[in-house]
Amino acid sequence: MVDETGPSCASSVLTIDLGALKRNYRLISSHAGTSECAAVVKADGYGLGIGPMLNALRDAGCATFFVATLDEAIALRTLQQGPVIYYLNGLMPGEADICRTHSIRPTLNDPGQIERWAEYCATGREALPAAVHIDTGMSRLGLTPHETAALAAAPDQLQKFDFALLLSHLACGDTPDHPMNAQQRDSFAGAAEALPPTTRSLAASSGVFLGPAWHFDMVRAGVSLYGVSPQPGRPNPMEQVIHLQGKIVQTRDVDTPQTVGYGAAHRFEGPTKVATVAAGYADGYPRSLGDQGVAYIGNRAAPVIGRVSMDLITLDISSAPDAKPGEMVDLIGPHNDLDSVAESAGTIGYELLTRLGHRYRRCYIETTA
Ligand SMILES: *Cc1c(COP(=O)(O)O)cnc(C)c1O
Prior knowledge:
This protein is about 30% helix and about 25% strand. By secondary structure, it is α/β, with parallel strands linked by helices. It has two domains: about 20-225, Alpha-Beta Barrel (TIM Barrel), CATH 3.20.20.10; about 240-345, Lyase, Ornithine Decarboxylase, Chain A, domain 1.
């Protein structure tokens, strides 16, 4: 199966392997044991397209989806009626009606949001489902420990709606030895004990790999599904989902003394074969990869030379001097995977993925293992 979207004459190609995505889902699911594996598809499915991600993950058996915003939740619901959909950013004034209309579950992040949902449900005499988020160490979203204790002491608001999920989020899940992992797990378990019983969820991708004590009833996998390592610095158990190829649009032989690109930032040390490739920072190829990134032509390395422009990069293809305009180079591929490119760029796979641009032809394929 090949499904293509994006501009029809695009010179660079982003290939997304839905087979790898499904296998990644099943791998995380098997690590999670008897806990449910929900999928996080915020930010347009981490940049890869919410529709294709939703369909493939549903095929792989996923029943529960998380997004960040209410608009993302509505987009998801418009695509499919079946799955359970939560949005994480919290129930803002005026949103309750929209949630009910679209069967979307809000996350209640503070006592005011809990009261808003409880009153809405009481008024409509309908106990609609919602998640309650308690903060155990992120200091970002969720009830403070003090507010959680107050809720546990007086849980009457929770009786007015369907308290379907208790969630919290780990700050240091990708650092297995960090003491916060055990502290957050213990505070979460303690709060869950004190509150009325419900489904409990603490772990995101990295948390799954901390072990069963972090799994509770549901894990929420995001970035690992798309191929980013949940355990930085260790062998990546996930399959690569994306392959990003840029097209060579011109080649040239350069002699010293000459420079390449804006700012004349790179000076050639000797005769060099240069390829100009149609992808730049407007396509999400990080500008920080100027003189840092490495593309591949087959298995031959072609370092980025000079600055990354908006629409173009220049490569030293002296190792593959026969490469011609029209040929493709791997910007993210088997020899330079998402995590390694992100690291060279001084960022993380999450950011690289979610910034992938919209000028690529996007090819959705499905490989079999
Ligand atoms: C983004 C997010 C996730 C998914 O995290 P990954 O590290 O991408 O697996 C899970 N839970 C919450 C609350 C999030 O914001």
